[in-house]
Amino acid sequence: MPSRSFLATALCCLIFFCATYGTTPALAQPPAANETSTVTQLPASALPQPRSENEMPSVVRVPAEAQASPHFDATAATNAYLAQIPPSKTARSDAYFEGGYWLILWDFLYGAVVALLLLNVRWSARMRDLAERVTHFKPVHTFVYWLQYLVLTSILVFPLTVYEDYFREHKYGLATQTFGPWMGDQMKLLGVNLVLGGVLAILLFGVVRRLPKTWWIWGAVVTTLFLIFASLIEPVYLVPIFNKVTRLDDPKIVDPILSMARANGIPAKDVYEIDASRQTTRMSANVSGFANTMRITLNDNLLRRGSPEEIQAVMGHEMGHYVMNHIYKIIMFGLIVTVLVFAYLRWALDWTLQRWGEKWRIRGVGDTAVLPLVVLLALVFIFAITPVMNTFGRTLEYEADMYGLNTSRQPDGFAQGAIHLGEYRKMNPGPIEEWIFFDHPSGRNRIYAAMRWKAENLKLFTDQQ
Questions:
Q1: Which of 208, 269, 347, 450 could be bridged to 411 by S-S, CB 3.0 to 4.6 A?
Q2: What does the pLDDT read at residue 53?
Q3: Whose CA is closest to 321, among 248, 409, 402, 436?
Q4: Has residue 236 got a pLDDT over 90?
Q5: Do β-strands 295-299 and 285-288 pair in parallel, antiparallel, or remain unpaired?
Q6: Domain parsing of the chain, residue ranges
Q7: By three-state DSSP, how is residue 287 classified?
Q8: Once rounded to an integer, what is the mean pLDDT over residues 440-450?
Q9: Burial of 284 (0-12, 13-18, 19+ CB in 10 A)
């Protein structure tokens, strides 16, 4: 998949709303969301891939301080693991991750400028007028406007997109595509956004026009239901647009995963592999979908560098999301946030349209020309609550970490996976930094949690010696 989730991009273009938690960490996320990684080579799964200059060593040994002993200390074991990360790699990943802090700001400001441009030069009103000349049938009119809006905004934000998703990823050794295939994926993404965003736009503007007094309540409900639907179809119908998904047949990998799944009440009969290496060096796995669309998936980067022990630790974490019903928690959290966004929009749209609606030639909330204003206002709200949303995600990820440790009983595999996250994540942030910017626990905290678990379960490892 492209480096940005196609669902999140579609909904961010429309900003109807809560795109950040429209999909669960255990479901469909951008590659960075569920990434963890692995330690040793698996010849049966090896792929002829060039090694990225930013990759950590494929083999991360268990340091002496992390070996099971009567004097085992979780803090010392954590420090010993962190000491294995080469300083040059630490500096590189810190620079990459900290640069992302600024990109949050620049994305917000760039999006605001684009929205204000569409409003103040009346491009939005002109697109509305063109759509009306095509048809007065409201659903088709809305779709025609959405088509114009999506194409124009995609062009306007392309310089930032190509920097963030192509040049910057290549600079830090995280991308594998040349420009042509990358553009091909961007065009696919545009097509998916056109369809999904168009459907959502038709539904929401229909709600506004038919329910002018309570549109903000029903709009939140429709948005939440749409996000659930998109999460349902993503693993089976959307992911294959960007990547080849095949059934994994290696029993050394599949059998332990399915055994864990059965032991935890997960109705999975197969494990799937996705060819993410055609786009990225990042490693990921997930338990995605609902009911008959539920799938256990690992990407080929994980399989290429992974030991069975670390893969089990990774999958224990992903199964934790499923078993602990995180999808339902996220749906409820998303519904609450979405209702708040719509309530804020109801007040903010009334206030702004009274002041500048005539200047922008916007006729009211039900006018499609209002979309850039909706985007602008929603950007402000989402930007302001970023620490809250990150804290929610980080809390669920910590719960899944604990579940995964108890399920897989692979604390060293878990710690080694956290080290490989250091290829593109800052391992040792300050507490305020982690609270604001991290939607997963930091690498240090994850390793410490694994070593603390090991300290409390030393008998499991001393009996094997």
A1: 450
A2: 55
A3: 402
A4: no
A5: antiparallel
A6: 6-47+54-462
A7: strand
A8: 96
A9: buried
Q: 């996705």: which residue's tokens?
A: 274
Banded model confidence at residue 30, pLDDT cuts 50, 70, 90: very low
- Distance, in Å, from the CA atom of 358 to the CA atom of 297, rounded to the nearest integer, reads 51
Return the CA Rg of the chain.
Answer: 23
Q: What pLDDT, on the 0 to 100 scale, is given for residue 305?
A: 83
Alpha-carbon torsion angle 120, 165, 432, 109, nearest 10: -10
Tracing tokens 């009969």 back to the chain, one arrives at 269
pLDDT at 88 over 80: yes
DSSP string, 291-305: GGG-EEEEEHHHHHH
Ranking 28-37, 266-275, 328-337, 372-381 by mean pLDDT, the lowest is: 28-37
In SS3 terms, 177-233 reads as CCHHHHHHHHHHHHHHHHHHHHHHHHHHHHHHHHCCCCHHHHHHHHHHHHHHHHHHH
CA angle 207, 209, 215 (to 5 degrees): 45
Residue 421 confidence (pLDDT): 81
Considering only CA atoms, which of 4, 9, 15, 386 is closest in space to residue 223? 15
Tokens of 335: 């519904």
- pLDDT value at 418 more than 80: yes
Over pLDDT 70: what percentage of the chain?
85
Q: Given a cut of 70, is residue 2 above it in pLDDT?
A: no
Strands 285-288 and 245-247: unpaired
Report the SS3 class of residue 271. Answer: strand
Q: Which residue has the tokens 């029993």?
A: 251
What share of the chain in percent tops pLDDT 90?
69
Distance of alpha carbon 439 from alpha carbon 196, whole angstroms: 26
Which residue has 């030991």 as its token pair?
Answer: 307
CA distances (Å), 195 to each of 117, 188, 263, in order?
25, 11, 39
Q: What is the pLDDT of residue 57?
A: 54
pLDDT at residue number 120: 97
Structure tokens at 462: 């001393």
Taking alpha carbons only, the member of 181, 327, 331 closest to residue 266 is 327
* One-letter amino acid of 271: V
Q: What count of Cα atoms within 13 Å lies in the side-chain half-sphere of residue 56?
A: 34
**What residues contact 60, with CB distance under 8 A and at least 6 apart?**
39, 81, 84, 416, 419, 420
Which residue has 């992911």 as its token pair? 239
Q: State the chain's maximal CA–CA distance in angstroms.
A: 80
